[in-house]
Amino acid sequence: MGSGHEGGAGAPGGGEFYSPLYNPDTGAYRFLIDGEWRDSASGQLVHNANPSKGNERCFGFQACTRDEVDAAYAGAKAAQRQWGRIPLNKRASMLKAAAELMRQHHAPIADALIREIAKPKKDATTEAKRSADLIEYAAEEGCRSLAKGDMITSDSFPGAERDKLCMAHKVPLGVVLCIPPFNYPVNLAVSKIAPALIAGNACVVKPPTQGCVSALMMAQCFKKVPGIPAGLVQVVTGRGADIGDYMVEHPGANCISFTGGDTGLAVSRKARMVPVQMELGGKDACIVFPDADLDLAATAIVKGGFSYSGQRCTAVKIVVAFEEIADALVAKVEEKTRKLTVGQPEDDAQITAVVSAASADFIQGLVEDAVAKGATMRTEWRRDANLIWPCLVDDVTAEMRLCWEEPFGPVVPVVRVGTEEEALRYVNESKYGLQGCVFTRDIDRAIGIADRMETGTVQINGPPARGPDHFPFQGVKDSGIGSQGIVNSIEMMTKVKTTVINLAKPSYATA
Ligand SMILES: NC(=O)C1=CN([C@@H]2O[C@H](COP(=O)(O)OP(=O)(O)OC[C@H]3O[C@@H](n4cnc5c(N)ncnc54)[C@H](OP(=O)(O)O)[C@@H]3O)[C@@H](O)[C@H]2O)C=CC1
Ligand SMILES: O=C(O)[C@H](O)COP(=O)(O)O
């Protein structure tokens, strides 16, 4: 398959499968509403940038209007009514068909990810394929878990006879507003959409500006499945700053699933009386004890800290090294860091441009602040536009912003500690609580400190990670509300309904 965009700078590749998304007259992508790819009545376009090509224009897409948001919610509600009456096994089959289309047509999605968010080629392909696997797993998981409920008899309660039989089962919420972030615009979209759909809901999706077209192509894989009601997956495009609040506060949203940064703190406050699932930022700490396997720890730190140029909420964002082994550990990390390739995503460089000039400026500010306050650069600071060479900053202290703020870039700070209490400080005094990891050969020590770490997850002898996607994934404090992961997302996107049979007289089962 070709590069994925043979039809000109922005036109989609992948033959006729993706061609309806693109308007050659405007040179922009359409939005998806009620099963149709349309241009917005606003006549306005949003353009995102290619981070690897000097932030030059990448793709154009619709700046949708509030009327179009209203229509999207109304259409989703109508589609949900149909979808909710389709048998679970048929819903599952349709989702599996969408997953298969995503596998067949993954190349243009990967190419869009390379262009929109500078995701290295292999990672971009992996995101598309991992997303298909997630959809498929959600379909199978939903078929099992959603078919079960509880039957409760009244006589277990003091003074009651067995004359009421209660059936408790899970029913859909209605319409789920799905808002994914730029760094996984496909995988963190389907991590919301697939559980929502198998649970019988419809979805209104607001893709990130950087990553928008990748998400639109993802939506086409659902749209093209025969039997999926038109409007079941609506995709409304536009800058979050312009239409985000309207979509969040909209009465048509019966649930909100958001992944992103501190924006989510405001979103959670604006949400109405609906279930919210928030996955926000992180400052994942990597604690390395004196007895740790330092090669294992160094490999995890480099992989965890620099994959996708550190633009992962689960990236290692601070190394907490015990003094006794700190020099040896830093030397190993430095050696591996210097071997990372830096360059273009299409060449599969390990370090590529961060998503925007503003992000690069923010990262640079954190490093400059640390150095000004006495930190030691183990690798030279080097930046070319959005491209920042992997940066290892040693001797970081609590007075530095880099100790507590999330760079969301290729920067790994190191603090040195003498005791477990000191180590825990760098975890539990953070406003974040997403993940953390611990390296030690002593399992009692590992479990002991893991139990005291105020995070959603602790990885023992491995780097922080959301995957595999069926694991529960959650943040505490400013890192989130609720739990993602396929099983927990399906659960969260349903509500309990009970039906009680009142018998004329008590009835007891015979042995
Ligand atoms: N915990 C986790 O699983 C993850 C956390 N993150 C965190 O997200 C940040 C980077 O991702 P990024 O996409 O920049 O995060 P943002 O919070 O800036 O954006 C996340 C999503 O929210 C949208 N948005 C923006 N403003 C509003 C609004 N007022 N109402 C509703 N939606 C809105 C954005 O759209 P638009 O792009 O148009 O602004 C985007 O789709 C980092 O802090 C990172 O740690 C990222 C990924 C996963
Ligand atoms: O938001 C993120 O950055 C992702 O949740 C991280 O997912 P990963 O750990 O599988 O890269």
Automatic annotation (TrEMBL):
* UniProt xrefs under InterPro entries: Ald_DH/histidinol_DH, Ald_DH_C, Ald_DH_CS_CYS, Ald_DH_CS_GLU, Ald_DH_N, Aldehyde_DH_dom, ALDH-related_metabolic_enz
Q: Which UniProt keywords apply?
A: NADP, Oxidoreductase
Can you state which reaction this protein catalyses? D-glyceraldehyde 3-phosphate + NADP(+) + H2O = (2R)-3-phosphoglycerate + NADPH + 2 H(+)
**Where's the active site on this chain?**
E279
In terms of superkingdom, the source organism counts as Eukaryota
Specify the Aldehyde dehydrogenase domain's residue ranges.
37-498
| Matching Pfam families | Aldedh (PF00171)
Cross-referenced SUPFAM superfamilies: ALDH-like
Q: Which PROSITE patterns match?
A: ALDEHYDE_DEHYDR_CYS, ALDEHYDE_DEHYDR_GLU
Q: Which GO terms describe its molecular function?
A: glyceraldehyde-3-phosphate dehydrogenase (NADP+) (non-phosphorylating) activity; lactaldehyde dehydrogenase (NAD+) activity
* EC number of the protein: 1.2.1.9
What family does the database annotate?
Belongs to the aldehyde dehydrogenase family.
Looking up PANTHER family in the UniProt record yields: ALDEHYDE DEHYDROGENASE (PTHR42991:SF1)
Protein name stated in the entry: NADP-dependent glyceraldehyde-3-phosphate dehydrogenase
Protein's organism: Micromonas commoda (strain RCC299 / NOUM17 / CCMP2709)
